[in-house]
Write a structure and sequence with these properties.
30 helices; 8% strand; mainly alpha; single chain
């Protein structure tokens, strides 16, 4: 039997790791986040951008060889944007003409031509000069923005240090908000990233509450805890801090693909040699931007002289046992509403204008002088007699579907909140005893089946074999579980065996469903915004206002985390895909515009058995292109995840060591809130069909937050 793992164990391991790091020579700890000599010219370029030139200055430089700075441009503070752009383009054209001249093989004839040749070195070939013509780039200075960030950082640095230490993460990561937001907790980017750590909604919802009443991305304390979890997750996946930090910008899937393509975790090779349409200037430079920010943050007086640093806010926290209007809360506490609002930046405008109450379960921050307050006292003063009881529900089948009419939503509203997934071989004992006998169970069911509500689909199951085993007819099984075709049966799925009791029609239920629908809609809007940002990733702002309009990030063209999903949904060159969790043959048929029987014939699959997670499947693209298929596939998974994270949060991670006899089935039975697709995301390189004793499995600790 699997013994439960507690968060205390994880905390103890983290503490031991910290003690180990503390006992290491300083160079050993430093190796976790290296500053390679090969990247030093790039680091020095960004140190200059962050500390030597302001947003009224900028460099014209080569975008690949950053040490080649052709010219430094200076603007008067009141120079209009159009005049700045015109001057930048005029100078760019002049430099390009020089490069074309040198690229023709002609010798340098003017002082400017000789200056460019000297920048590149006398041994530079004409062909290299010709290539450099299209690589002349303008970079606006950032020293005034960075200086302001150093001053703000004092308010959050102690908390960031504590959070990183408690998870056993390198302390140097504390410099990352300089690159992301200049330590502005209220920062927004044009693609929807928000807060000190610039979380996108889709990624933020994995770790924080983001809904109509609360957006914890804007709370520096909660956002820091979420960022530490995300970075820890990236590191577990990628095995390298340079890659984990780069994935914070480029996404875990992209960095896994880079690692696989080049066969290395060496950040120098990846920065220099990895080729991908989405791995552009911003992604290539994210790690060196971080190293530059860290160098300045480690010795700010050297770069900026003495600074007045922000002081850490002083407050007390009280958890609300019931919801309350913000006006009533402020009056009861005797705290000015603006003071209360400043201490609680995660509460959205709808709370402060009275459209929504401060929700039950929310931890309210009060001025440090308000230490007399407790949850019980506050509830008493607010006139609460008992906590609000809410019902947890699962987003229904009426949620928006992906482009192709494929996915079947889970039939049951509880206790499992998400569909699960593609098949691996598992142990017997398929019928799951989760509830007492209820009316409507077939009278000829076996004794075990008659006392249950659900059946867990196994690798070799078909609808017919399940019907025979449980005594529930094929037609009834398909009706109860909204199965349109036997090819929509997937292993790991819980099939309902009896009709569900009617759900109570409460305001809480409606709010939960609305939240799930909104999450799906926002996920689609976010995809569009990120795609637009990718198309405009080469933007070169020429003023502070333009830079701020692009976003608060000091890394060029940064868009925030696109997704924390590391699964590769692409089609291989041979037209195959790897089957991943929550996919069926019926999904593939719908996305391709073909039939499941055709795919079975193509792959020589017999019977009605489900496809197996981890196996490769051959596809044919007669009606749509591989790119269109990939997009439909991603849309399905993004909407599936958006609906799930509308009501669940990841509160941490723990390690489980597989025992003899363990299987995917036994593990998921002891972690019923964790859908198999999420378990796969935390263990993308693990073959659950071949689980050996001693294998380390990362288990996300999931909380159901529908009652908050």
């Amino acid at each position: 039997m699997i013994s439960p793992r507690s968060f205390a164990c994880t905390t103890l391991l983290s503490a031991l790791l910290l003690l180990l790091c503390a006992s290491m020579p300083s160079g050993a700890a430093e190796d976790l986040i290296p500053r390679p000599a090969e990247l030093e010219p790039d680091v020095q370029f960004w140190i200059k951008v962050y500390s030597q030139i302001t947003t009224n200055e900028g460099y014209l430089h080569d975008q690949h060889r950053l040490s080649v700075i052709y010219e430094t441009l200076h603007f008067d503070a009141d120079t209009p944007v159009h005049e700045r752009k015109a001057r930048v383009e005029a100078q760019r054209t002049r430099i390009q003409e020089i490069l074309r001249h040198l690229g023709s093989g002609a010798p340098a004839q003017t002082a400017d031509e000789q200056k460019v040749r000297d920048l590149w070195g006398e041994d530079t070939s004409p062909a290299r000069f010709a290539e450099a013509v299209e690589d002349v780039r303008f970079q606006l200075g950032q020293s005034d923005r960075f200086r302001a960030g150093l001053m703000r950082a004092g308010a959050w640095e102690a908390h960031i240090g504590e959070v990183l230490a408690n998870l056993g993460l390198p302390a140097q990561i504390a410099a990352l908000p300089h690159v992301e937001s200049s330590f502005d907790p209220a920062a927004y980017s044009k693609v929807g990233a928000a807060g000190l750590w610039q979380f996108m909604r889709s990624t933020g919802r994995r770790f924080m509450r983001i809904d109509a009443a609360v957006d914890e991305r804007l709370d520096p304390f909660r956002a820091t805890e979420a960022a530490a979890q995300l970075l820890n997750y990236n590191y577990r996946l990628l095995g390298s801090w340079p890659l984990a930090i780069t994935a914070y910008n480029h996404g875990a899937e992209g960095m896994l693909r880079a690692r696989e393509q080049l066969g290395t975790t060496d950040i120098v090779r990846i920065v220099r040699d990895y080729r991908s349409p989405t791995f552009g200037f911003a992604s290539r430079n994210f790690y060196v931007c971080f190293l530059a920010a860290r160098a300045i943050a480690d010795d700010p007086d050297h770069y900026f002289g003495p600074l007045h640093r922000g002081s850490e806010p002083q407050f007390v926290e009280v958890k609300l046992s019931t919801s309350a209007p913000s006006a009533a809360l402020a009056k009861t506490l005797g705290v000015d509403r603006e003071t209360l609002r400043g201490l609680n930046p995660a509460l959205r405008p709808a709370v402060w204008n009275g459209q929504r109450p401060v929700p039950a379960g929310y931890v309210v921050r009060l001025p440090g002088s308000a230490s007399k307050w407790t949850s019980d006292l506050l509830a008493q003063r607010l006139g609460a007699t008992k906590p609000v009881v809410v019902a947890a529900v699962t987003p229904p089948a009426s949620l928006p579907q992906p482009a192709a009419p494929a996915a079947r939503a889970p039939a049951e509203p509880a206790p499992v909140a998400s569909p699960v997934v593609a098949v691996v071989p598992v142990t017997p004992a398929a019928v799951v005893a989760t509830a007492a006998t209820a009316p409507g169970v077939a009278t000829n069911a076996s004794a075990d089946a008659a006392s249950t509500q659900y059946y867990l689909v196994q690798n070799d199951d078909t609808v017919q074999t399940i019907a025979a085993r449980t005594g529930v007819t094929v037609n009834k099984l398909m009706e109860l579980n909204s199965i349109p075709d036997p090819d929509y049966l997937y292993g790991g799925e819980r099939l309902r065996l009896i009709a569900a009791a009617p759900e109570p029609e409460t305001d809480t239920t409606s709010a939960t469903l609305d939240s799930a629908k909104a999450a799906v809609q926002e996920s689609q809007e976010e995809q569009q915004a990120v795609a637009a940002a990718d198309r405009a990733a080469n933007a070169e702002p020429v003023s502070a206002a333009q830079a701020q309009a692009e976003g608060p990030q000091l890394a060029p063209g940064a868009t925030g985390q696109d997704t924390a999903d590391p699964v590769d949904y692409s089609v291989a060159a041979d037209g195959t895909i790897r089957v991943v969790a929550a996919e069926t043959l019926g999904h593939y048929a719908d996305w391709l515009g073909t039939t499941a029987s055709r795919l079975r014939t193509l792959n020589k699959l017999r019977g009605r058995k489900p496809v197996v997670m981890g196996h490769r499947l051959k596809l044919e693209f007669e009606r749509i292109s591989p790119t269109q298929f990939e997009q439909r596939r991603r849309d399905y998974h993004e909407q599936l995840q958006a609906a799930y994270f509308a009501s669940h949060r990841i509160a941490g991670t723990e390690i489980y060591i597989a025992r003899k006899g363990d299987s995917l089935w036994s593990i998921t039975q002891r972690n019923v809130n964790v859908p198999i697709w999420l378990l796969q995301q935390y263990n993308p390189d693990l073959d659950f069909a071949d689980l050996h004793p001693g294998t380390q499995i990362s288990l996300p600790k999931v909380e159901d937050v529908t009652g908050l």
